[in-house]
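[job 4471] stage=fold_predict status=RUNNING
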Amino acid sequence: MPALIEIDGVAKRYRNADSAALDGVSLSIGERNVYGLLGPNGAGKTTLISVLLGLVRRDAGSVRIGGHDMDTALPAIRALCGLAPQDFGFYPTLTVEENLRFYAAAGGLAGAALKQALGFALDTAQLGEHRRKRAQALSGGLKRRLNLSLALLRSPRILVLDEPTVGVDPQSRAFILDVIRRLRDERGVTVLYTSHYMDEVQQVCDRIAILDHGRVLAEGTLRELIGPSGEHGYRDLEDLFLQLTHRRLRD
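[job 4471] inference complete, writing structure tokens
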């Protein structure tokens, strides 16, 4: 069975940049996966996500998502995807429900489909009791949950989460991680997940790619990357990450 997301030799260089943001990235991501993208700031994670969503034009390479070629079927690809960006995407002066209704309508939902989408987003993020609160009045954890709920409105087959737990308390972090697992296990969603929290990645990700300077330094399951009991010489994922990125910086 072909991969859900196929990335082959993707390159991107921004004008006046000293180095490439992406330098020949190739990855194959299957269905029902939580796929972790790790890397220091400037490694290329956000650029890669932007390329996959058609927000940034690549300079070279190919992308196929859900059997669709990026160059000929971008609308079909976007219809498969939901994005929760690191920066909040909601309107702070609108209520939770008003934000959801606005984005649902902007996505073409109406009538019974709109009602179903609102119910699913509110239930999944457990925001029902907060639906009439203005977004700016929510706690940090609830704001993250609202950001996530907006990405769920069209029941995406692929959910892209860029640092979804930044600035939240441990209880909210545990809740978001549980939602990610349930979306994968109960609805078959593939999740692309960027984070700087190694413990989170180890908890929820089926496969992991470590990027730096626009290149993939390592890719695989946690067991493949560090081995049982650290048989490859790495204590844990953080140790592997630090050794690989430090080595890359010295090269």
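[job 4471] summary: The domain at 5-250 is CATH 3.40.50.300 (Rossmann fold).
[job 4471] exit 0
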